[in-house]
Amino acid sequence: MENKLSGFGLDPTGVERRTFLEEGESSPKQSLYSLSLSASLYLACFHLLSLKLGFILLLLSIYKMDLDLSAPHSTGTTIIGVTYNGGVVLGADSRTSTGMYVANRASDKITELTDNVYVCRSGSAADTQVISDYVRYFLHQHTIQLGQPATVKVAANLVRLLSYQNKNMLQAGVIVGGWDKYEGGQIYSVPLGGTILRQPFSIGGSGSSYLYGFFDQAWKEDMTHEEAEQLVVKAASLAMARDGASGGVVRTVTINAEGVTRKFYGGDTLPLWHDELEPTNSLLDLLSSSVPEPMST
Amino acid sequence: MPLTYDREALFDRFPLASKSKNLSHLFDPRKDIPKSSFGVRMVKMTDLPTKGGFSFDLCTRNQMLLDKGVQMPPFRKTGTTIVGLVFQDGVVLGADTRATEGPIVADKNCEKIHFMAPNIYCCGAGTAADTEAVTDMVSSQLQLHRYATGRESRVVTALTLLKSHLFSYQGHVSAALVLGGVDVTGPHLHTVYPHGSTDTLPFATMGSGSLAAMSVFESKYREGLTREEGIELVAEAICAGIFNDLGSGSNVDVCVITKGQTEYLRNYQLPNPRTYISSKGYSFVKGQTEVLSTKITPIQSKVQTVEGGDAMEE
Fold this sequence. Notes:
Chain B: It is found in: Cytoplasm; Nucleus. Chain B: It holds the Pfam family Proteasome. The structure holds two protein chains of two kinds. In chain A, helix 2 (125-146) crosses helix 3. Chain A is built from six helices and 13 strands. Helices cover 30% and strands 24% of the residues of chain A. Chain A starts with 27 loop residues before the first helix and ends in a 9-residue tail after the last helix. Chain A is of the alpha+beta class. By secondary structure, chain B is an alpha+beta fold. Chain B folds into two domains: 7-53, no CATH class; 82-269, Aminohydrolase, N-terminal nucleophile (Ntn) domain (Glutamine Phosphoribosylpyrophosphate, subunit 1, domain 1, 4-Layer Sandwich), CATH 3.60.20. Chain B contains seven helices and 13 strands. In chain B, strands 1, 4, 5, 6, 7, 8, 9 and 10 form an eight-stranded antiparallel sheet that branches. Chain B has a five-stranded antiparallel sheet with strand order 11-2-3-12-13, covered by helices on one side. In chain B, strand 2 (82-86) and strand 3 (90-95) form a beta hairpin. Chains A and B meet through strand 5 and helix 2 of A and helix 3 and helix 5 of B.
């Protein structure tokens, strides 16, 4: 049973401030060659994945508030991608849920597509894993044929093609981010439905609802790497505090000219927000102490 | 007589065939097709050969029936507790042994730890037929792959074969698996969900008893467990599932996989012995049951062998 849940792993479309995808003036050799290769890969995609439509009449079951361990594995999530003056920083929480049970509290939602392009996954875990696997395979071929590292635009386009062609059957909202020598750091958002949109920063997943206002205020152009990383971690922890479907630890991946750096922020290193309590070993320690702590109002 | 494709006309030309005329009219599916002006029957779409592949039409029909209130017949599930953990030398897998058919225990001592390769084993939860079939299929594929490559199978190979099979069936193959093994790259433990997603974890639980078992793991697991500690922790987690989950019960199976060696400890613990047995025992003496009547019919051979005949052609 696939649950179509509004706000649960969906990336809301139609946000006003978006810019159109720039048909960028990259170097002609690169654009022509890679475009023709991506066209041939597009055809390969199409043949491989011309799945029959219609028989997956998605069972629009009512969202059950019980445990429902048979629900599809979904990354109800918070994913973030920001550009800075030198590359991109991708960030995500680590919670994978089946219904109301946390199936994996330490999952890695930032998946490698190539050395220089990574993707943050949200939505159905199975769908996004399969899409990543296909795109990794196509990009590998593309890199061999091209003779140089693939561009971020090609990677994002491949994700978009798979997402759009199979939109009836997939529930996948992703953020593709990477660095290449032509355009530097780039972030492409590919939400549900298969739109592709290049943005200076992007947020996605169920926890992103809580971050639109935060980014409106806190985002600025041309940040340093430290500022960008701190912004991503702060944003992710804010969303995890408010969204039930996000939690666990924060993972970040930085991609720039030098390469890729992975960082891990455990729950105890994240800041505590309004009404969040300090972690204690056991409430029994409080009870056995001589003066019991008064309840805070 | 003009050449027509009309079956009735054919019978007029070949009168012997008309013996079966009545029957064929009964079963002829093309009887009701309107004839064109030339008396040629038009070909229906159903005459095309069926394409291969899984037909999802029945899945929508099943859902429609469920919505109308028709109940599905209960199939045998391994409502279950299966666990796996990584210790310092390899992986330990564990499972209970109860198979249920709705509320009834269909098998009190079934095997849920399936063989994939000499160095890879897989615990299965969900529909018993699905887990058996999918693990058997991937196990055969792995063996063919071993013959082709000449190398020991890797856990990620099994993982990819399982996940792509389950994804293509969109969750209708209800198999939730804990896959563990040791290969040249080291020990690996993965969980595979019916929709085709996978997780890689140091410890994992699946099945209806997964919450009970996970509580044990979350409190007691640490990195670098020894073999004895690992087995003990796995047995404890399975027992938590056996005693606190109605879908799990009976005995504990354990499988320890290390580099170069695999030990399948079938019925490692039997925490549910049958204690209330009559001390006098059960005896069924001949003559206790009353015989009402006896009829003996000798079996006569109806087969006649004929010697000779034509030799088979090469």
